[in-house]
Amino acid sequence: MKTHRFYCLLLTFGLLTSFYAQAQKETDYWYFGSRAGLRFKDDNPLIDINSKGRAREGCTAISDSLGNLLFYSAGDTIFTRFHTKMSNGWSLHGHQSASQSSVIVQNPYSLNLYYLFTVDALGGSNGLKYSVIDAGAMFGQGSVLAKNIPLITPVAEKITAVDHRYSRNAWVIVHGSSTQNDKFYAYRITPTGVDPNPVVSQPANAISHAGSFPNNNAIGCMKVSPDGRKLALAMQELNLVELYDFDDETGIISNPLRITGLAKAYGIEFSRDGSKLYVSTQNTTGVDIEQFNLEAGSKAAIMASRRTALGTKSIFPSSLQLARNGKIYAASTETGINNRNIKVLNVPDSIAGSKSFSLGNQPLNTPTTTPFRTSEQGLPNFNQSYLWVPSFLYKNQCSGDVTEFTMKIKRQIKTFYWNFDDPDSGADSVSFLPNPTHQFTKPGTYNVTLTAVLLNNRTRSTTMEVVIYPSPDADLGPEQEICVGGKIRLNGPEKMMKYKWSTGSDSASITVRKPGTYWLEVRSQNGCVSHDTITITPLQNAPKFFDKYLFETCPFRDVTIKPIVRGTNHRWNTGSKDSVLVVRREGWYALTMNIGECIVSDSVQVVFKDCSEDFMVPNIITPNGDGQNETFMIRGTLPGEWHLRIYNRWGTLLYEDKAYRNNWPEKPPVDGTYYYILQKPDTNEQYKGWFEVAH
Questions:
Q1: Phi, psi of 246, deg, nearest 5
Q2: How do residues 318-371 score in pLDDT, each as one tens digit?
Q3: 503 contact partners, CB below 8 Å, separation of at least 6
Q4: May I ask which residue range the UniProt record assigns to the signal sequence (predicted)?
Q5: d(Cα 328, Cα 136) in Å, to the nearest integer?
Q6: Is the C-alpha dihedral spanning 563, 569, 570, 571 positive or negative?
Q7: How far apart are CA 12 and CA 526, in angstroms?
Q8: Which terminus of the chain has a lower count of CB atoms within 10 Å, N or C?
Q9: How many CB atoms neighbour CB 329 within 10 A?
Q10: How many CB atoms lie within 10 A of CB 118?
Q11: How many other C-beta atoms are found inside a 10 Å radius of the C-beta of residue 554?
Q12: What is the distance between the alpha carbons of residues 377 and 280, in angstroms, rounded to a whole number?
């Protein structure tokens, strides 16, 4: 019985393929450094040379949910979507040389109301302040309704924001400086505005940011992970990073993990799924981006997981920023042609140095851009929640497989919904299971979407391209029969990555010479596997050699046996190798010959019947002493009626008898061909011919 099996050995991680985050376009526009700009459209950022802002380090920007630019700032001046100074949007107290000079947070229940939070550099006296912006005022140009509202001073030059777990509120978090040197302050933004009473956390053994202005201990960035579970901050002067747990419900920061030995630690960022932490460090030759695997296990294992993800020749420390496409970008202060780009970690959720991890460069200039745009040290700072989307893994990508999907979400969600983009599957094209399976109806590319509704009722979606590859066809054809000495060639499909036969061969085809069960397993270039089995049985219906299988003849007559099929290498059971056999005895006569590559046998039977004897001259005699066909016997006539002359092949007369009595030869002649002349004196009848002598 033939069997076909198809399966796939591919394990595809959704985080490593093309995807599109949906409905989180508030971070689409980036303006930073020396008038540098990018616009993120799907997975591909576009160069934007419209910026009027300048920022040595920290900056921020905001777009609406559809990705339309609203405004941007380096903490001192606000520029509109039209790249003009916003009404009342100058002389803000943020410092563009602060590691993170500013961040923008939207009022939870307003389309147009935003808060721009700013911090001073080096623990300066301006501390943490905020300004209130109506982005829809003045026909979309925006207006600053109130500015430089103080909250606390002094603070370090680091600030981050993230959404509240259960409500549409948000948190803005800073770290103290000077007398507030070991405390975190989490301010809650509600529909009524900014709550001036922060949640204060003072974790045990927290590193102090003590120091009077200018306080170098204040230098370095701080980020909350996009899923709101972790917080990390860099302290450049102390060469370390602290990693904390963050409670996005209460605003409490706790459980510190101190990672030392990070020279001039400055930039901080988490991968989108929160599994990896990245830190920019500085050495004598440039800037390195270090990776820590937060899923390594214990604190010691996390610290031991350190890997260098990227080495640059930047002169100054680099900010790091996650983008909507899931990639992390690193500011660059390299000189020469490299200062026109920033660096990219393409797959930051994977382990640095692994096959899936890759790096790149993002240009900031077109061929005609003048003057050249550069990033300097900073990149825009965002509410980190804008950058979180649900992620998932999947495996089994071959046609006919059941593809398995697994959500990779560490935070709590309220509901979720899958759309497999496979309308031909009917109702099965959607699922509400956390880890569903789906059998795609045909090969192709499907835009699979996972939508999650968070506990705060915000909706986040990810669309990922899932490619279903055609399974290779390992069909070995119908079952076949094989004859003795024959051979059959079994062929696999062309251009496979791997062949594996039951015989142990790894070739595209094999030749078999005997019955049996044979199987083939092939793997395509896409990793899809197909399997087929074929059974080769012995030949049951050999070709028939003769048109009849029973010859009835008179005892004194020859029988000529001739096959009706063509063949080679004839072998009769009489010993003859001729294609035609002449016999005068009863019995079974078998012929074996080659037909094509097959060795085939067949046989016929000769039997005598009673019949009157006709005149007949023999064409062979066998004087071998067995009493059969010993003499040249003329049948159907009386002895002495014929005059016989016998010649050899050279015409020499060997024998003559004018009244022949069927008695030649008296002694056996040599084997060969002889010729005869028969004459009947009474009637002048004459016969000429030849006969063979064979012992």
A1: -120, 130
A2: 999 999 999 999 999 998 776 789 999 999 999 999 988 999 999 999 888 888
A3: 510, 512, 518
A4: 1-23
A5: 31
A6: negative
A7: 11
A8: N
A9: 26
A10: 29
A11: 17
A12: 11
